[in-house]
Design a protein that fits this description.
Radius of gyration of chain A: 15 Å
Low-confidence stretches of chain A: none
Number of strands of chain A: 7
Order of helices and strands of chain A: EHEEEHEEHE
Helix content of chain A: 10-25%
CATH superfamily of chain A: Electron Transport, Fmn-binding Protein, Chain A
Distance between the termini of chain A: 6 Å
CATH class of chain A: Mainly Beta
Oligomer: homodimer
Largest interface: A-B, 34 and 34 residues
Strand order of the largest sheet of chain A: 2-3-4-7-6-5
CATH topology of chain A: Pnp Oxidase, Chain A
C-alpha cells in the first residue's frame, strides 16, 4: 500500500529542521540540485549559505540561478533498504537570498552544531512555501 | 578541508547502483525532483520505472517533463551528522524513456531485491552521462 500524504502529514514529517536536496533552474543545464540543510518556521524554509562547507569561492551557482529564476524546490527524502519505510516530502516555492534573522541563526545553531560559532552563517536562501506534497510507502 | 572530486573519484564514489534524487525541468514549477534508485554501467544511468512504488496512475510527471525537455540530473548525496564525512556526486545528461535490457534488469534485480520478481520493472529512464562533478568534505 502506498499513500499520498495530505498537507498536515507532509508538514509533520518535514519537521522543523533537516537535510535535503534543493533544486533550481539553470539556463544551460536545465536543473541544478545540491544537498542542503534547512530549518522550517513561519511557513518559510531557510537554507544557510555558510563558510564551512566552502565551495569554489565565486558566487554560489544556486544564488546565480535564483537571480535569473526564483523558482525553487526542496526534497526531503527518507530512504530505507526496507521499501515499506520509504517516504518523501517536497516543497515548491519562490526563493530569494536573504540575511539571517537572529531567530533563524538560533534555530540553525540548535539544529546543527557546526553553526554555533559566530559568523558561520553569513546569508541564507529563504523559500516561501507555495505547495507541499509528499508520499509514503507502507501503511 | 574540502575538495572538488575529479571525474575518476566521482565515478568511484558513485559505484554501480544506489539511490539518489533525479531532477527534471517542469514548465510551470521550474524544477521537479524525485527520489530514485539507479544502476550505472556503460556510461549510462538507468532509473527504473516500476509498478511497486506505485504513484497516481497517470503518466509519471518525470516522463512528461522529459518529453518536453530531456535535460536531467542525478544527485547522489551522502549525509552524515559528522560534516567531515559529507560528500556528493552529481551527473548531468540527456535522459529518455526506454525499455530495459536483460542486463539492466539483472543489474536492478541484483541491487534491489524488490526487483527480483518478473515484471517489476516495465520501463526505465536512461540518462547518457554528459558531466560528472562531485565534492567531499574532510580529507
Amino acid at each position: 500500500m502506498t499513500m499520498r500524504l495530505d498537507e498536515e502529514q507532509c508538514r509533520s514529517r518535514l519537521g522543523t529542521a533537516g537535510h535535503g536536496v534543493f533544486g533550481t533552474v539553470h539556463a544551460a543545464r536545465g536543473v541544478d540540485v545540491v544537498p542542503v540543510v534547512w530549518v522550517f518556521a513561519g511557513d518559510r524554509i531557510t537554507i544557510p549559505v555558510d563558510a564551512i562547507k566552502a565551495k569554489s569561492g565565486a558566487r554560489l551557482q544556486r544564488l546565480a540561478n535564483l537571480d535569473a529564476d526564483d523558482r525553487g524546490v526542496l526534497l526531503v527524502d527518507h530512504y530505507d533498504d526496507d521499501w515499506s519505510r520509504l517516504w518523501w516530502v517536497r516543497v515548491h516555492g519562490r526563493a530569494v537570498e536573504a540575511v539571517p534573522s537572529g531567530e533563524e541563526l538560533d534555530a540553525l545553531a540548535a539544529a546543527f552544531p557546526a553553526y554555533r560559532s559566530r559568523g558561520a552563517v553569513t546569508k541564507t536562501i529563504v523559500m516561501a512555501v507555495d505547495t507541499i506534497t509528499g508520499w509514503a510507502a507502507g501503511g
